[in-house]
Amino acid sequence: MPAADTPFAYAILRVVPSLERGERLNVGVVVYCRQREFLDLRTNVDPARLAALAPDLDPAAVAASLDALRAVACGERAGGALAALDPSDRFGWLVAPSSTIIQPSAAHTGLTADPAATLERLFVELVA
Question: What is the mean pLDDT of residues 44-71?
């Protein structure tokens, strides 16, 4: 018997090198499904696309920032005090409006029977 669909929320993570220009590059997706106890994110920084948007921005620095966000999402020790919060609070922190170079989109919702597969699908559609 297939698993029943449950609600989930997600946000796109974007690099915004210059607020004035308003340009952005999708670099990740974070998915949270409380009923399935799932919170994870997937990221990728395409150096060529980033260079076209912001030639002076170091892709390794962006990737390091995204790695720090993943540590928070996954509750890893490297995520510090934020990683010790419960998953709902961690998701809230990850999708809160930010003025940093990595900014989340508004949170969106949907239904899923498999949050990991949904994360992969959204990553392919919105980032890769």
Answer: 93
CB 10, CB 31: distance < 8 Å: yes
Residue 99 binned pLDDT confidence (cut-offs 50, 70, 90): confident
> What pTM does this model have?
0.91
Question: Over 90: is that where the pLDDT of 33 sits?
Answer: yes
Helix (H, G, I), strand (E, B) or coil at 76: coil
Do the beta carbons of residue 12 and residue 31 sit within 8 Å? no
CA-nearest of 50, 76, 56, 65 to 98 is 65
Collapse the DSSP code of 114 into the 3-class scheme (helix H, G, I; strand E, B; otherwise coil) and give the result: coil
Q: Report the C-alpha gap between 118 and 124 in whole angstroms.
A: 10
Helix runs in 22-114, H state only: 47-53, 59-73, 80-83, 87-94
- Per-residue confidence band for 2, with pLDDT thresholds at 50, 70 and 90: low
Q: List the alpha helices (DSSP H) in the chain.
A: 47-53, 59-73, 80-83, 87-94, 115-126
Residue 126 CA: distances (Å) to CA of 21, 47, 113, 119, 122 = 21, 17, 20, 10, 6
